[in-house]
Amino acid sequence: MAHARGPIDRPFVTTLVALALGFALLGMPTAQATSKPTVSSFTPACGSVGTSVTIRGNHFTGATRVEFTGVDQTAFDVESDGKITTTVPSGATTGKIAVTNSDGTGTSVDDFTVSSSCAPTISGFSPMSGPVGTSVTINGTNFVNTSAVKFNGMNASSFSWNPSGTQLTTTVPSGATTGQISVTTPAGTATSSNNFTVTGTGALPTITSFSPTSGPVGTSVTINGTNFTGATQVKFNQTAAASFSVNSAGTKITTKVPSGATTGKISVTTPAGTATSSNTFTLQEAFHDRSVSLELRRHLVARGFVSAEGGFAACYQSVAVAIQRKVGGIWRTIRSTLTDSSGFYRRFIPDREGRYRALVRRVELTNDVCGRAVSPVRFNT
Question: b/e for 172-197, b at 16 or more Cβ within 10 A?
Answer without folding.
Answer: bbbebeebebbbbbebeebebeeebe
